[in-house]
Specification:
This protein is 0% helix and 46% strand. It has no helices and eleven strands. By secondary structure, it is mostly beta strands. Strands 2, 4, 5, 6, 9, 10 and 11 form a seven-stranded mixed beta sheet that branches. The protein has a four-stranded antiparallel beta sheet with strand order 1-3-8-7, with no helix packed on it.
Length: 124
């Protein structure tokens, strides 16, 4: 069983930055591919960024490429999402998710464990 707890959300002005953190329970965290997803009101949940188990491979949605960075600390069993140059369209609930294998995926159905989400609101 893996539990994921996100933190770091909040209200920020456009152009600002936030760093989200997701702490995972479990002793084999380094084996799990991890991802960040988001869901805006009235929209479907979408992929934002993903990391392989080792952190050696990272992947991003086109809409955040160059602005967001996913990273992980396997000793602290934590995955981060650094978000820079935030835009109002980044407003959403952000979810951390874990796979049961080491690869990454953009597909929601490939993630088995999910956090409760953290709200990010970007004002214009």
């Amino acid at each position: 069983q893996v539990q994921l707890v996100e933190s770091g959300g909040g209200l920020v002005q456009a152009g600002g930055s936030l760093r989200l953190a997701c702490v995972a329970s479990g002793r084999i965290f380094s084996r799990y591919g991890m991802g960040w997803f988001r869901q805006a009101p009235g929209k479907e949940r979408e992929f934002v960024a993903g990391s392989s188990g080792s952190g050696g491979s990272t992947y991003y949605a086109d809409s955040v490429k160059g602005r967001f960075t996913i990273s992980r600390d396997n000793v602290k069993t934590t995955v981060y999402l650094q978000m820079n140059n935030l835009k109002p369209e980044d407003t959403a609930v952000y979810y951390c998710a874990a796979r049961t294998s080491g690869g990454y995926s953009r597909r929601i159905e490939d993630y088995y464990y999910w956090g409760q989400g953290t709200q990010v609101t970007v004002s214009s």
